[in-house]
Amino acid sequence: MSAPKELPKELEELQAPARPAEPRKKDESSMLDSLTLGHGLRLEDLVDREALGEVCRSFFALFGIPVRIYAQDGQLLADAVEDQAICRYVQGLREGRAACGATVSAVKGADPGALGEATHPCFTGAMYRIIGLDYDGKRLGRIILGPYLPNEVREVPRSLLRIDPGVDPDQAKALLPKMARVRPETVTRIAKHLQSVLDLILFSGHRALLTSQMHLASVRESYRELQERNQRLSDSFERLKELDRLKSNFLATVSHELRTPLTSILGYGEMLAEGIAGPLNAEQTEFVATIRDKGEQLLSLIKSLLDQSKLESGTLSLKMGDVAIGNVLKDVASTLMPACLRKGVELEVELPPYVPSMRGDAERLRQVFLNLAENAVKFTAAGGLVRLVVETEQSGTAPDDDVGFVLFATRPTAIVARVEDTGIGIPASERGRIFDAFYQVDGSSTREHGGTGLGLSIVKRIVEMHGGSIAVGANPALEGRVDRKSIPPGSRRTGFGSVFTVRFPLP
Ligand SMILES: Nc1ncnc2c1ncn2[C@@H]1O[C@H](COP(=O)(O)OP(=O)(O)O)[C@@H](O)[C@H]1O
Ligand SMILES: [Mg+2]
To answer: Which of 13, 135, 173, 462 falls between 20 and 30 A from 448, CA-CA?
Structure first.
């Protein structure tokens, strides 16, 4: 049995301020620091407090020794403690309470040092064990075990009796033994065990933390990449818009400059053809006719280019009026009739008895259907059929029974005009693109048909300016009986013909 130490020296020690924590060693753990995005590892970030509390409680239940776990900055993270009878008694005395407070704060501030373990005595004869909580070479916090009564303390120490004038030796003697009595080696074993359990918890906590931080870092990285890519995309988009604007300006200027001299050429051609400059022989007449023909072609090309640039700059305006779409189609048919006769393509117009008129620009609508019908004739071989059809869509159904009663009055909701042909057709995969400016299917095979690829793009925009829509498909009337002979070898054409459907909703 060892004699209890003298109080004054002990108290002095107890009240000494805690030494500052040792500076952290620079070692391989700095790599971990960089993984944890520069922050030092902190106990409170690594562990789940619930789990920590659970560990403390189970140790307390097993050994009866109070357990507290502190973070490196002194924050209490978990504990399992019970008031000791002797402590309660001492706290009831004035001097005793002060001495007790001093001991507790000294224990809290005690540093386990490089060895990772320190003990701190209490004037009651009890002991505290302070154990460093290290992880990966770093001190993250500490465990405080105690107070417990070392096995060798068999009598009430003098330090306890002298702590307050009011200490009653009999009371002290009765209460002190109620504290858990343990051998120092046992405390060491308990501490080791506790440390290894916490090590495990820290390890899994660290792994979870790293995983989530790596996940975060990779999300951040992809976000950054995405932003960069977005920036590049929007830069290119701006540049493309600028180029597009330049191209439109160029188109407008060039077309305008071409148009003026071409008008003169056509005018003089006409005068020559009419014999104003003197009579022409047969060959001269033929040459002049060719000049006028090609001139007209060039003029329509220039008109398309001008339309295109007006559409792009948004300066194309419609002269709105009431339009009878049937008349527009009849007009288109009569314009194309000579060409159809020459080519041997049959041309039909089919109109219902009554078609409501629609609001629109008659000249632009004529342009739409002329373009569609010209395409139809162009891509249909001799012997084929081109039909211009108008239908109206009605609201609701009008069941027309055997007797011929119409049960519901209906109202036309849309005018639908179709341009159907029995020509070479458009592969389904191309149907989305033919409305793009300058796009032609199989550039090479259409070359023989001439054209610029502007027609449908203009058609679509004019239709849309009228609040309408346009769609294209194969000609259902032809499925299964296709004239493959008219399809160029190696072409992707179906030979199923085409149907362009233009739909104008009515107000
Ligand atoms: N009725 C049709 N039958 C087959 N192909 C067509 C038809 N109409 C249009 N196309 C295809 O769509 C392309 C684009 O038509 P369009 O814009 O009018 O240009 P272009 O007539 O000047 O070639 C045409 O080159 C052609 O390949
Ligand atoms: Mg065309």
So the answer is: 462
